[in-house]
Write a structure and sequence with these properties.
509 residues; ten-stranded mixed beta sheet; five-stranded parallel beta sheet
Length: 509
């Protein structure tokens, strides 16, 4: 099987003059970019970073970060990307946990890296306008010709992602070349990508969605348009300027795009295919997105850093809330919550924990030096996701949340997602998140956090829930109107933050 370096080389030989990457006004063909990538791979070796070493990269989505990613694939270095919003303690933890050999960063991470003691003892590579006298300038790595670097094989580790760490310390997720390539090929197939596709490189390259966009474009001679930091106005301009043909975003970014005053369908008319992942898309938002783009393909991906895609639905608006069926490289089951065996499968329609087959082509082999995490999540050859869901009578999977997000009220298990879908259909509801808050009588009380377009009353929303056929025990007993819904750096809703804020507000002063 090809490793990723050979996969990229095949594209260079096939279409050397095709546009590979752009970053603002800078454009590079595959031939030109390959020359840069090889130069960087050679330079990393001269600097003492070799096969099997970990290179920590803390950058926004700029062409230098994408170049480092590919240089590592040729050199056999394990690229270890980290959120550019990371604190000095985050960076220090990752350096020690991954036993990092060198760090590359840009202005977005300058303060954190400068304050990080562990980083100061490493080889440092800087891109952009960074004032670090002890660092190597990225531009100095672009030294021209030399030996061809092609040192990785399909069984070598390609990269190590770090999970978001919503509970406890982040976990390293090493992924092999063959696993990354299989995931990228499946991404191409499941999104019906063709040669010369152009995608928006806005999902961060420290996130599995960003990496998948980068790799998939290289496999099909496509154009990766770097967007260093998501900004709706700049993103709309990039789509229009570059003729972007497909988008792969989290639902939050779609929301921000279509709600921006400068958005219009005519400005994004080049976009033909849509994909989303990272979080469920409410029925209300899905309808607005489809109306805004009128895509020929609208794909819902459900997956994780550990196993890229679990399921897909290539006609997401057909059945809002559905995540479809198993992807090309996967088999999934729904088992009893708390089960230790993959055989404790629940009946159709019953909610349980979603698990995935670890023998799938896209699966990782286990966490980096975390036997405790392996013991919790890897059981009898299956990955226990901690996500809840159920299969409907037609065989489609519905993901209802996290095991920890399940609301237990009056002895009943209630999924937040079902309630969010109902409330999102009200025309004056812009965003909604549902969570359970502690309650002496009910155990947890169903609470809806609402961002409104105009002033709304509890009674209006309650009536909407009744008219929509939502079961009475699932209706929110409390509505909280908020100015913003808190989200992570990649647009995931932070329910725990809303719960914490509301509980803090309820405490006596």
């Amino acid at each position: 099987m090809f490793d990723l370096g050979r996969s990229f080389l095949a594209t260079v030989e096939r279409r050397p003059q095709a546009t590979a990457i752009s970053d603002g006004n800078q454009y590079k063909s595959y031939a030109d970019w390959y020359a840069d990538i090889q130069s960087v791979a050679r330079a990393l070796g001269r600097l003492g970073v070799g096969k099997g070493d970990r290179l920590l990269v803390v950058m926004q989505n700029r062409w230098q970060m994408a170049t480092l990613h590919w240089a590592c694939q040729f050199a056999g270095i394990i690229v270890t990307p980290l959120n550019w919003r990371s604190t000095m303690s985050d960076i220090g933890y990752c350096i020690e946990d991954a036993e990092v050999k060198a760090i590359a960063y840009d202005t977005s991470a300058f303060e954190a890296v400068s304050a990080c003691r562990e980083a100061q003892s490493l080889l440092r590579i800087v891109a952009g306008e960074v004032d670090d006298a002890g660092a190597v300038l990225f531009d100095s790595l672009l030294d021209g010709t030399g030996e061809t670097i092609l040192r990785a094989g399909a069984e070598d580790v390609s990269l190590m992602l770090y999970t978001s760490g919503t509970s406890g310390k982040p976990k390293g997720v090493p992924r092999l070349h063959r696993v990354e390539r299989a995931a990228a090929l499946a991404h191409v197939a499941q999104n019906l990508y063709r040669h010369d596709e152009c995608t928006l490189g806005v999902m961060p390259l420290y996130h599995t969605m960003g990496v998948r966009s980068l790799l998939s474009m290289a496999l099909i001679d496509g154009h990766f348009v770097c967007i260093p930091k998501f900004d709706p106005k700049a993103t709309i301009e990039a789509i229009e300027r570059e003729g972007v043909s497909n988008l792969y975003l989290v639902p939050t970014l779609y929301h921000m795009l279509i709600e921006h005053p400068e958005f219009s369908p005519s400005r994004v008319k080049s976009v033909d295919k849509l994909g989303f992942a990272g979080a469920p898309m409410s029925a209300g938002l899905m309808a607005r997105v489809e109306e805004a783009f009128k895509p020929s393909l609208f794909v819902n991906h459900y997956g994780s850093s550990e196993i890229y895609t679990f399921t897909i639905d290539q006609n997401a608006s057909r059945k809002p809330g559905s995540s479809g069926r198993s992807s090309l490289n996967q088999c999934i089951r729904v088992v009893r919550i708390g089960a230790d065996s993959p055989d404790e499968v629940v009946p159709v329609g019953e909610e349980g924990e979603i698990i995935a087959d670890m023998t799938g082509d896209e699966a990782f082999q286990g966490y980096w030096r975390r036997p405790d995490a392996d013991e919790k999540s890897l059981k009898q050859g299956w990955y226990f996701t901690s996500d809840t869901g159920y299969f409907d009578a037609e065989g489609d999977l519905f993901v209802t949340g996290r095991v920890d997000d399940l609301i237990i009220t009056g002895g009943e298990n209630v999924s937040p997602v079902e309630i969010e879908n109902v409330l999102s259909m009200h025309p004056l509801v812009e965003e909604v998140v549902v969570a359970g808050l502690p309650d002496e009588q009910w155990g947890e009380v169903i609470t809806a956090f609402i961002k409104c377009r105009e002033t709304l009353q509890d009674e209006t929303l309650d009536g909407h829930c009744i008219d929509s056929g939502l079961a009475r025990f699932k209706r929110p007993r409390r509505y909280v109107f908020v100015d913003e819904i808190p989200k992570s750096a990649v647009g995931k809703v932070l329910r725990r933050v809303l719960r914490s804020q509301q509980q803090d507000a309820a405490q006596p002063q």
